[in-house]
Amino acid sequence: MRLGVLFSGGKDSTLALHYAIEKEEVVCLITILSKNKESFMYHTPNIEISMLQAKALGLPQITKTTQGEKEKELLNLEDAIKEATRKFQIEGVVTGAIESVYQAERVQRICNRLGLWCFNPLWKQDQKALLEELAEKQFKVIISGVFAYPLDEKWLGKQIDTKLIDRLINLQQKYGLSPSGEGGEIETTVLDAPLFKKKIEVLNYSVEFKGNSGVFIIKQARLVSK
Amino acid sequence: MILVVDMNWKKNSLGLNEFVLPIITIAKTQDQCIIKHFLEVTNQDLSQFDSVILSGTALKDTATLSQPEKFQWLKETEKPVLGICAGMETMSVVFGMRLIQCLEIGMTQIKMLKENPLFREDFKAYSLHSYCVEPSKDFEVWAKSTKCIQIIKHKIKPIYGALFHPEVRNPELIKRFIVLNKS
User: Fold this and answer.
1) A116/B60 Cβ within 8 A
2) pTM confidence score
3) pLDDT at A41
4) Closest to A121 (Cβ–Cβ): which among B18, B130, B167?
5) Chain B closest-CA separation from residue A96 CA (Å)
6) Which residue of chain A is at minimal alpha-carbon distance from B171?
7) Which positions of chain B have pLDDT values less than 50?
8) Which one of A21, A23, A72, B8 is separated from B179 by 20 to 30 angstroms, measured CA to CA?
9) Sign of dihedral through CA atoms A84, A86, A87, A90?
10) What ipTM was predicted for this assembly?
């Protein structure tokens, strides 16, 4: 089945892409560039890096920009999926949703309207196990956004490894944070993954932190051999 | 031991992760589980299991609905069965009920119509279906949403159907079904 993956460049959509490629034919990535930093639907920090990731994966990418107004941003997503259907004859869409009924039902509705299959291969999976899978499979994932207490600027830019996973699980037990950031507590950026033909090297970045939230902004990056 | 039947269009599909594994996560807190694809299930296999759960599928997946003959074992077995979404739809077709088009996607309010051991009060559940079932003389209706029948129970056999997806927001239904029917 020819599939398009809704791809933000964060850990969940990248892992969903790896699952999808194991079982079906992934023919393109679909990325929404949201101008609203507090989007309900889309991952926002370093979304531009997704273009470099698409190159690293060797997959064509359809991108659409949205102002990120609630519900209106879904029309931009629908347009992007329609374009993927036209250009790449996709028969279905894959998302990295784990727990969010809000995200899942909206993508399901769009797919239903367009007559497409919809798959959520990470759906309801144990969040700690997913993080451990990323570490085991040598994904290089950094934390590129923190949006909840007690996460602070020290977390920004850190790579997700077994030590960091333990710290996230501790915060889950203490503060109820979702360890994979399903409630928008953290956002991530993937710099390398098993299917990347090249990896991303960050050349220049800045850290912005204010109140209880902050972002790690990649200002300049390039692809280098693995 | 519980048999979880993978109702997706093919074995080891992308739908396995989404519709079967979440059921396993809940069911294995109560008992051991084994997954079999629907094309591999035979009546002889069933003797080793205490109960059977039929999974849901992707919205566009109608493979089991077009092959009800593969589920004749449902009519013959005395084992407790819980059909979830496509599982309930398929079970209904096997028992001669009619399906009608009815789309529900997202959280739905479910109203209990009859005192029963699975749920006592009204609740909200995640729905993802394009069909619903018409009432039948062989099944009692235990719960409804504003649009359609949501929980059914065979009048004689321990055969249950839930049109919503309990594995998403109502894991207690799966646990109660297992506990209720543990031999």
Assistant:
1) yes
2) 0.93
3) 53
4) B18
5) 11
6) A124
7) none
8) B8
9) positive
10) 0.94
Average pLDDT over residues A120-129: 94
Confidence class for position A39, pLDDT limits 50, 70, 90: low
Q: Is B69 a catalytic residue?
A: no
Per-residue burial over B20-31, b = 16 or more CB atoms within 10 Å of its CB, e = otherwise: bbbbbbbbeebe
Domains of chain A, CATH where assigned: 2-119 (3.40.50.620), 137-225 (3.90.1490.10)
Q: Which two tokens stand for residue A28?
A: 């393109």
- A36-63 mean pLDDT: 79
**Residues of chain B found within 8 Å of residue A101, distances taken between Cβ atoms:** 106-107, 126, 168-169
B103/A112 Cβ within 8 A: yes
Per DSSP, the three-state class of B147 is: coil
- The predicted pLDDT at position A45 comes to 60
Q: What is the CATH number of the domain that holds B9?
A: 3.40.50.880
pLDDT at A72: 75
B32 CA: distance to closest CA in chain A (Å): 18
- Taking CB atoms and an 8 Å limit, are B59 and A108 in contact across chains? yes
Number of domains into which chain B is organized: 1
pLDDT of residue A184: 74
Q: Is the pLDDT of residue A178 over 90?
A: no
Q: Is B105 on the interface with A (CB under 8 A)?
A: yes
Q: Which of B33, B85, B132, B148 is catalytic?
A: B85
